[in-house]
């Protein structure tokens, strides 16, 4: 019975054109919930779901993710009139602390790039993350047809982002020179040792293992943070950075952009530049007022 209702729900997500990764994670979470419950999924009570949530031994962020999948399933079941009441309506959603941006320092990025030269594919991934702002999943999905050379040495890349949202990012001539080595391949250009297309988890694992192997406490995603922060340091408008990262919400972009004290200091200095002139006028006025 549970398998049937899970399949029905996944079929609904498929018709809504949900991302394959979303459907995989949703199915996995519902199967784990089914194994925990002592009754059919559609027979769960608020108390059952509360007991399930309290049994989770993962971080708050993961509890929130798992709970979101469960809430979405029961909302669908209720809207589809498969159940009279939604037992997940009041399921607790943990409050997640605001993330702190953690861009990889330039010297460490340089070390990571130098150490990856023996693996050109990995080297290219690091460039796409640090100089184009791509996520691991977006790197894995790069296809030859997504790359449009501009005739001036660089290119524009159509990136397949989260939620099926595509965006176009600039690939500098220096980065395109490395990316070009894979454009002879049909379809997805990054491959595993067995010739099969690369998958996001493997991209993440390889990059993380590389960082750990050279003693750096960073992940591929911190290169994306570096991309955003460095653009702002160069004077880019934060809305342009938002578009380059593929964020729908500007608040999300602000999480990625590390605050630069030096950058902020320049703005504060610029704000008070007129004080020197004002001070000179005040001194002049005092002299004139003296008998």
Structure write-up:
It is a single chain. This protein folds into 2 domains: 2-79; 106-263, Intergrase catalytic core (hpI Integrase, Chain A, Orthogonal Bundle). With 291 residues, the chain is mainly alpha-helical. The mean pLDDT is 87. The protein has helices at residues 2-15, 20-36, 46-55, 60-79, 106-115, 120-132, 136-140, 173-179, 200-213, 220-233, 238-245, 250-256, 261-271, 274-289, and strands at residues 147-149, 155-160, 166-171. The chain has a 3-stranded antiparallel β-sheet with strand order 1-2-3. The radius of gyration is 26 Å and the shape is globular. The chain starts with a helix and ends with a helix.
- The percent of residues in helical segments reads 55-70%
Look at the structure and give the CATH class of the largest domain.
Mainly Alpha
CATH superfamily of the largest domain: Intergrase catalytic core
Biggest sheet descriptor? 3 strands, antiparallel
Evaluate the radius of gyration: 26 Å
Poorly predicted regions: none
The counted number of beta strands is: 3
| CATH fold-level name of the largest domain | hpI Integrase, Chain A
Instruction: Assign an overall shape.
Output: globular
- Strand content of the residues, in percent? 5-15%
- What is the CATH-assigned architecture of the largest domain? Orthogonal Bundle
- Strand arrangement across the biggest beta sheet: 1-2-3
Q: For the record, give the distance between the C-alpha atoms at the N and C termini, rounded to a whole number.
A: 100 Å
Order of helices and strands: HHHHHHHEEEHHHHHHH
User: In terms of structural class, how would the helical and strand content be classed?
Assistant: mainly alpha
Keywords: DNA recombination, DNA-binding
InterPro entries: CB (IPR044068), DNA_brk_join_enz (IPR011010), Integrase-like_cat_sf (IPR013762), Integrase_catalytic (IPR002104), Integrase_recombinase_N (IPR010998), Tyrosine_recombinase_XerCD (IPR050090)
Domain Core-binding (CB): 1-78
Pfam families: Phage_integrase
